Amino acid sequence: MMSDWNTRTKLVHEGIRRSQYGELAEAMFLTQGFLYPSAEAAEQRFLNPTDDEFIYARYGNPTTRMFEDRMAAIEGTEDAFACASGMAAINGALTSLVKAGDHIIAARQMFGSCLHVLKVLQGFSVEVTLVDGTDLSAWQAAMQPNTKVCFFESVSNPGLEVIDIKGVADIAHAGGAAVVVDNVFSSPIYSKAVELGADIIAYSTTKHIDGGGRALGGVVLGSKDYIRGPLETYVKHTGGAMSPFHAWIMLSGMQTLDLRVRAQAANAELVAKACDGHAKLQRTIYPALTSHPQHGLAMAQMGSGGTMVALDLAGGKEAAFKFLNAMKIVSISNNLGDAKSIATHPATTTHKNLSEEERALINITPGLVRISLGIEDGNDLLTDILNALGAV
Fold this sequence. Notes:
Aspartate Aminotransferase, domain 1, 2 domains, 12 strands
């Protein structure tokens, strides 16, 4: 019956495992280990544990399993594994798929820490080719017989380029490679990654899924064979599993995920349309604007412009800093997807470790400000942002 439920219902009810007490809220099992009724039972559990049998919190936990089941249900995958952070999820997804001598193709438009993981893998003799993620011919040209993974953000951080999931998946699958998608900016609410051909999907649950800026978390989703095979084996032995407490927080956040993300996206569209063409801006970047280079793809792939807007101020870093410092409601931080609106200057924070040439290659200018719209009143946010632009 649960498969017939719509997303909002699944976000509230999917995956619940009640104890003998019949609690209404999801129970938090703060235990690192589990008891066995006999030595024979312990042996059997280690040999072949069922979905309702647990061994150690690094391997799995009832609270964590509730979260994994709920995430898999709304994303449309067979299974999921919860990780300690978004970067633990990305690292696990990539490292579990490759060995020395293998080849990864990745979009160059990417969060700085994702690029760092690729550099680490290169140090272990994994070949990495960075391409313009929006250019399907570049993906095709980069394919090699030893290509095992094509990796990209469905909407790039921070430039909001939209990558053609189906287009890349067709190329990857023809060459026998798996498609790994970092889907944070799309969020599970606007995700069609599975039906478009993604094999493995990763989220930083620190962002929209928590939604309250409370805890780190990540999740990897895919087939049961992959999740309970290479991925689980890698993560449980290297220690990147989510804690039960954080899983409980994520479960709480998921109940309002659909409501929050849709409100955030509505605020983002309101702000983007009002700022588009503003005299203080070189560019207003938002996928739902017809001026966006991948507008049509974004609407087909997400059905929304998402919760993020990027504003490129004409006066460079000085203007960007004046703008950031003038806002009263929008806070300065490097998180995103929060119920509170947050602004970031990527060139001096999240992408500061890239060279000036590398930042220019992915359109991170000194004047670029990334804004994650929250759930505050849209008119209040718009007034705050327009007043801050006026102060530049």
